[in-house]
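I have been asked to look over a protein record a colleague put together. Alongside the sequence sits a line of tokens, each denoting a local backbone shape. Please read both lines and tell me whether the tokens look consistent with the sequence. Take the sequence as given and treat only the tokens as open to question. I have pasted the whole thing underneath without changing anything:
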Amino acid sequence: MTILSTKILNSSQKSILTKANIKVEDYDAIKIDYLTTQIDPNFQNIIFTSKNAVKAFLQTVGTQNLANHKYTAFCVGEKTKSLLEENDINVMEMTHYGAELAKILVNKYPTESFLFLCGDKRRNEIPSFLTKNKVTFKEQIVYQNSPNPITFTSDFDGVLFFSPSGIASFMVRNTLRNSVAFCIGTTTASEAQKHTKRIIIAEKPTVESVLEKAVEYRNTIMN
């Protein structure tokens, strides 16, 4: 079985596939550019919906300012939380999806004010829900997503997708043909439905969970 990952995998992630006799080719379907804009110092509570937002924040703020200013984080994703905690940033709340986090902010922290750090292709669940419920926040774009379209001549048994924009980038120069689309979550799967009916969604919105689904699929077709 041969699959394509639309995100560069690290060695431990690749080993999950190689142990299952799955060949993998990987590339980044999306190019990330971090912006060096100043982070508004008037906010203590910061919303992060991706590791990219955290990386942009860390680059901009710097170690010295991080030590002098006690930030509190509200984030989406286990990997986002881990990166924040590695840098000694206190994570108050973590959810798997933005809509879940927005509900928590409205229900538990209605009088707080938040700085929402995001990319230029951010989804609308958090800002629209906070606005609707009159929770004070400011949005700041700290990184940009741009497609990185590459043509593949090989046929793959499966393609791993981690965002709707990753699917859009892949489809610029390719088709899924008979490939299974392994998707990190329901939002990504909704985009995949425009191109195929052969979709498998990860149990959790993590890279590892997507890989586990690919291994499960391989075991099923081999038995």
About this structure: The mean pLDDT is 94. Helices lie at 11-18, 51-68, 78-86, 98-108, 125-132, 164-173, 186-192, 207-222.
